[in-house]
Amino acid sequence: MKWNEVRCPIIKKMKIYNSMNRQLEDFVPLNPEQVSIYSCGPTVYDYIHMGNARTALVTDIIRRYLVYRGYNVKLVQNLTDIDDKIIGRAAELGVSAKQLAHQNGEAFFEDSQRLGIQPADVAPKATEHIPEMISLIQTLLDKGAAYVIDGSVYYRVNQFAEYGKLSGRKPEDLLAGARVEVDERKEDPRDFDMWKAAKPGEPSWESPWGRGRPGWHIECSAMAMKHLGETIDIHAGGEDLQFPHHENEIAQSELATGCTFARYWIHVAFLKIDGRRMGKSEQNFILLRDALDNYPTEVVRHFLISAHYRHPLDYNQESLAKSEGALRRLNNCLDALKKYDGQFEANGTGGAALQDAIQTMKSQFITAMDTDFNTAQALGAIFTLVSEVNRSLSVSDEADAPALAQAYQALTESCQVLGIYGADVERSDEGDVEQRDQLVNLLLEIRQDARSRKDWDTSDKIRDRLKELNIEIQDTREGATWKIVS
Ligand code: AMP
Ligand code: ZN
User: Fold this and answer.
1) For position 438, what pLDDT does the model report?
2) Ligand 1, closest atom to CA 52?
3) pLDDT tops 80 at residue 268
4) Cβ neighbours around 377 below 10 Å, total
5) What are phi and psi of 433, to 5 degrees?
């Protein structure tokens, strides 16, 4: 499915809030043929929680929308499969770091798929890119932007004049922050390690500086550049990554290449719980897989995109229940509309008003998504049309089949971009809905037989009993139809 100028004739440029410049900017990809996106993925020492899922889902929505808009997209999302937390957790569990990272990496793919997240084009693992990292570190050493102490290699921050440009932190703030983790061996407290000398019992790799393992920031610089080139269009991650992770990625990459590393920086605000950031270290997290055991995929997606990605979102049962209600309304509406799909003959008088409402929804949806992927407003446009459709369906002679067919098309198309209808995962209730439809149609057939025998008692009984179950039958000249009423 692609955005199409005939269908949606809005030829304005999309706008993205670039956290580098702290403003909305026109989105102009470097290569008009292909947008490159790098998104910082999880550190695989555990299952992912709903906070991680929010950031991953925002990337998925950005990618889906760009594709809808007609772009080709290459998305790279890394897995950090070696780090202190992985080593620590593996030791607690008595398994190797490699084994733990592998298991949790697989679990991450499984959970992402259950959330309807389309797989990244490349999902590089840090441990599979050690030569690229060593080569990047060597380049920085050759340029005098790094130094070696006891087998560890540090980045020399004072060699990068623009250090702090992403986070907006001034050198004095950076110094104050960096002093928290004092390492007397560093030339400057702001310097950070790109290569860590091996410690006994920890996984390590050969390098020109002795055995060791990479630091976190060098991973993303090396993997982004390997898979997407020296300059990428969009770099995404949670807001916690802006400093120091992304600041350090920029320092390493830009000093090594002399090119802009990423042209648009997108930072996703935190998912919170009881007003605090949801996080592993906070011990207040809800695992994505547990949420998906309790709610259908589309409900969890709806909840996670119910706020614009730059606004914090609170996890609570009420919000999920609201999303569940919204999805029920949407699905009921689409179920009722489905039978009009492909109908072109006008039989009512309400077509014009509904067609206006459809055009309004389309243009509001595109404007919302074009303006920094505002999913909250896009959902608002969809649900306004749902109300219009329901109104139109409840006044039977106003319901115009071609307009209803168009409403079905417009709604399913927009919902598919957001992945809240017919996501690429099995819907737990899909079989139930199909079976219900078959049973109601069977009852309608039996009722029709009764009517042709002039058995009005049976006919009325079927109609009245179905009404009690919120299924309303309408007798039209073409035969009986039915719809779900709330
Ligand atoms: P981690 O596994 O902690 O490296 O996180 C993986 C991704 O999830 C990163 O992009 C984080 O910024 C993001 N993330 C972590 N916690 C949250 C949260 N509470 N809300 C939104 N994004 C988060
Ligand atoms: Zn990263």
Assistant:
1) 76
2) 8
3) yes
4) 16
5) -65, -45
Predicted pLDDT at 163: 96
Instruction: State residue 439's pLDDT score.
Output: 87
Sketch out the chain's domains with CATH numbers: 31-294 (3.40.50.620), 318-418 (1.20.120.640), 430-484 (no CATH)
Output the pLDDT for position 7. 43
For 79-93, the pLDDT digits (tens) are: 999 999 999 999 999
Residue 147 is predicted with a pLDDT of 98
How far does CA 141 lie from the centroid of its chain?
37
Residue 405 β-bridge partners: none
419 lines ligand 1 (CB under 6 A): no
* Beta-carbon contacts of residue 313 (< 8 Å; ≥ 6 apart): 54, 269, 270, 271, 272, 304, 306, 307, 319
Residue 178 scores a pLDDT above 80: no
pLDDT value of position 366: 98
CB of residue 105 inside a 6 A radius of ligand 1: no
pLDDT greater at residue 150 or residue 439: 150
Residue 306 banded pLDDT, cuts 50, 70, 90: very high
Ligand 1, atom 15, lies closest to the CA of 52
Q: Residue 194 carries which side chain, given as an amino acid letter? A: M
Alpha-carbon distance of 75 to 463, in angstroms, equals: 53
pLDDT tens digits, 341-397: 888 776 666 688 899 999 999 999 999 999 999 999 999 999 999 999 998 888 766
Q: How far apart are CA 316 and CA 325, in angstroms?
A: 15
Which residues, 6 or more positions from 356, have their beta carbon under 8 angstroms from its beta carbon?
A: none
Cβ-based neighbour number of residue 53 at 10 Å: 27
**Rg for the chain, CA atoms, rounded:** 27
Q: Which ligand is nearest to the CA of 83?
A: 1
Distance from the CA of 56 to the center of ligand 1, in angstroms? 9
Q: 55 C-alpha to center of ligand 1: Å?
A: 6
Query: Distance from the CA of 218 to the center of ligand 2, in angstroms?
Result: 9
Give residue 284 CA to ligand 1 midpoint distance, Å.
13
Let me know how long the chain is. 486
Whether the predicted pLDDT of 310 surpasses 70: yes
11, 5 contact by CB (below 8 A): yes
| 289: confidence class by pLDDT, cuts 50, 70, 90 | very high
